[in-house]
Amino acid sequence: MRRSLNHPKHHLRKINMVVASQGAAQVVLLTQIPLIVERCGLSLASIGGLVALGTFCLMIAGPLWGEMGDRVGRKPVLLAGLTGALLAQCLFVALLVAMSQGYLEESNALIALAISRVIYGLNAAAIYPCCQAWAIDLGEPEKRLSILSGLSAAANLGRGLGPLLALPALLAGALWPLAWLILLPFITLVLTAGLPKGKSYIAETESSENSSLPPGALALFATALLGTVSVGQLQVVMGPALKDLYGLSAMGASSATAVLLAAVAICGFLVQIGLVRKLKAPQMSFMLGVSSLCTGTILLSSTLGSLLAAAGLLIFVVGIAFLVPGYSALLSQANRRGGRLFGFLSLMHTGGYTIGFAIGGWLYERDPQQPLLGLLVSVSLIALFALLSSIISKKKKVGQTQYTAR
């Protein structure tokens, strides 16, 4: 029994739970925005600014935490990040409760709320890069795709379960779901404390070959950025499109959006657990993701306004489920310093979502008759960069083969 608890698979399950908890916490906060507006007196613009501030800090701090994880080890860095995130969430929730009870007004609490989101963003940025690099450290090299698809599936599962966690808490009171913002990071802190110390890689002792990026890495990073730009655009226009094109009321569109987002997260989880983890070649997962993404986008854009659009959305989600672990595994193949790499990948993901939200909303207001125009453009660029990455990778392999033959 003792040996099984120290088995790498047991540790990987704990890391997956940490990632799932982080995904759930993000969704719990998003589901409570209407109640925060009503009970705390915060304007929607103020909440949007606070979320954007935290996201910006999350984006810039990811590579730094990843680099620290390479140097001093995954466990101490992840523990530090989780501790800071927990303290920030405690401050954030305490301020919101004080506002709901009338002890604080928005003008007095806004600066403190902003500080709490800055602290949270700077510390929570450690979670994904450290977990991804740590999971790769614990696993076998040939199982990178399976490991990374498991982590991505865990994040999707957390996003799908987030609303289900919030619903029972609502029975206790309007703001009780916010308790999950404290409870979830506390649970992940306990889980992380029970993990073994991760590896560390010191820049001075590693060769340039071990720290080099795989061929076509820039194209893969561009694909990661554009993939989240695509998802961000789709998420931001989903509610307005349901209202304008399907004749739903504002409340109906909001409810339908919540249901669709939960269904999408669960669908991604099932695909990654049932299909992606069984693949052995990251390139296969990557190309399946690109082709499914293109097919789903074309079908979705051409049938939007009818029920057939659901099929396009499903194929789009399947594409993302294949794409993300595919390019993540390809990028990590030739690089020992996984923390730094996954930190930059986290930067691409967070930046992509931010760009997608901004572009999607702007394009929809500018031309509501073509709500998915930006999505079509970004997915077309994904196909272009995927082709470029494939060509560069093949040329590199041919060059290495010729060099070996000599």
From TrEMBL:
Coiled coil: none annotated. The chain crosses the membrane at residues 15-37, 43-65, 77-98, 110-135, 177-195, 216-236, 248-271, 283-301, 307-330, 342-364, 370-392. Keywords: Membrane, Transmembrane, Transmembrane helix. InterPro entries: MFS, MFS_dom, MFS_trans_sf. It holds the Pfam family MFS_1. SUPFAM superfamilies: MFS general substrate transporter (SSF103473). The keyword Cell membrane does not apply. The keyword GTP-binding does not apply. Gene3D superfamilies: MFS general substrate transporter like domains. Residues 1-398 form the Major facilitator superfamily (MFS) profile domain. This is MFS transporter. It comes from Microbulbifer variabilis.
